[in-house]
Amino acid sequence: MKRKKLLLPLAVGSTVLTSAIVASPAQAHGYVSNPPSRQAQCAQGIVPDCGNVKFEPQSVEAPKGSMLCNGGNSRFPELNDDSKAWRATPVGRNVTFSWALTARHSTSTWEYFIGDRRIAVFDDAGRQPNAIVTHTVDLSGYSGRQKLLARWNIADTAAAFYACVDLQVGGGTTPTTLPTTTPPTTTPPTTTPPTTTPPTTAPGTTGWQAGTAYAVGAVVSYSGTNYRCRQAHTALEGWEPASTPALWQRL
């Protein structure tokens, strides 16, 4: 009896420890910010009724190998709904995809799919990526509206991060009309000095604010210092300008 009383607390403690390890979330997070992925469109308010992903677009994490936009993560079923008003970005045949990473984690590969076909793979061989990662993918052979799945495979866990990007391949790249008039050659140029446009600021505020979508060139203030946006993104807690030099340039 004494032996059983001693072993029971040990067994319970072991169970609690094991549960804590299993429940511990991965420390790597990220998503495709440009062209805007489905979760980016949710975070920016472009598409409504997105559920939880609106507040954490970087958290679409699931086991490796899925071909779903949410990777099979039951927290974000909205990402799989093709009937939503996802905005397709007009692109040419070569597209540069930009990932915004809230935590950098050793990486095995980055994969890109259209349908069931893998059209590009980039091997990081276990290296730790930068806060902003870009890949240029050749979309030759595709045209019209396409849904591209991007998958970030973590090197030292069984997890991957998923993002679907809606594209209009071949759209918006050819001029529709030629100029109908040419400037006169005999009239001297005007002497009016060119006007300068002040940097874009966040609507309604000059201070950095989580939940705001910032365009490249936007200027904000944070803790008494001004910063200019380097990469279009939706601000999240933990992405303050002082701690994310990949997103913000100190002025």
UniProtKB/TrEMBL annotation:
<keyword id="KW-0560">Oxidoreductase</keyword>
<dbReference type="InterPro" id="IPR003610">
    <property type="entry name" value="CBM5/12"/>
</dbReference>
<dbReference type="GO" id="GO:0005576">
    <property type="term" value="C:extracellular region"/>
</dbReference>
<dbReference type="GO" id="GO:0005975">
    <property type="term" value="P:carbohydrate metabolic process"/>
</dbReference>
<keyword id="KW-0732">Signal</keyword>
<dbReference type="InterPro" id="IPR036573">
    <property type="entry name" value="CBM_sf_5/12"/>
</dbReference>
<dbReference type="InterPro" id="IPR051024">
    <property type="entry name" value="GlcNAc_Chitin_IntDeg"/>
</dbReference>
<dbReference type="Pfam" id="PF03067">
    <property type="entry name" value="LPMO_10"/>
</dbReference>
<feature type="compositionally biased region" description="Pro residues">
    <location>
        <begin position="181"/>
        <end position="201"/>
    </location>
</feature>
<dbReference type="GO" id="GO:0004553">
    <property type="term" value="F:hydrolase activity, hydrolyzing O-glycosyl compounds"/>
</dbReference>
<dbReference type="Pfam" id="PF02839">
    <property type="entry name" value="CBM_5_12"/>
</dbReference>
<dbReference type="InterPro" id="IPR004302">
    <property type="entry name" value="Cellulose/chitin-bd_N"/>
</dbReference>
<protein>
    <submittedName>
        <fullName>Lytic polysaccharide monooxygenase</fullName>
    </submittedName>
</protein>
<keyword id="KW-0378">Hydrolase</keyword>
<keyword id="KW-0503">Monooxygenase</keyword>
<dbReference type="InterPro" id="IPR014756">
    <property type="entry name" value="Ig_E-set"/>
</dbReference>
<feature type="domain" description="Chitin-binding type-3">
    <location>
        <begin position="205"/>
        <end position="251"/>
    </location>
</feature>
<dbReference type="GO" id="GO:0004497">
    <property type="term" value="F:monooxygenase activity"/>
</dbReference>
<feature type="signal peptide">
    <location>
        <begin position="1"/>
        <end position="28"/>
    </location>
</feature>
<feature type="region of interest" description="Disordered">
    <location>
        <begin position="174"/>
        <end position="208"/>
    </location>
</feature>
<dbReference type="GO" id="GO:0030246">
    <property type="term" value="F:carbohydrate binding"/>
</dbReference>
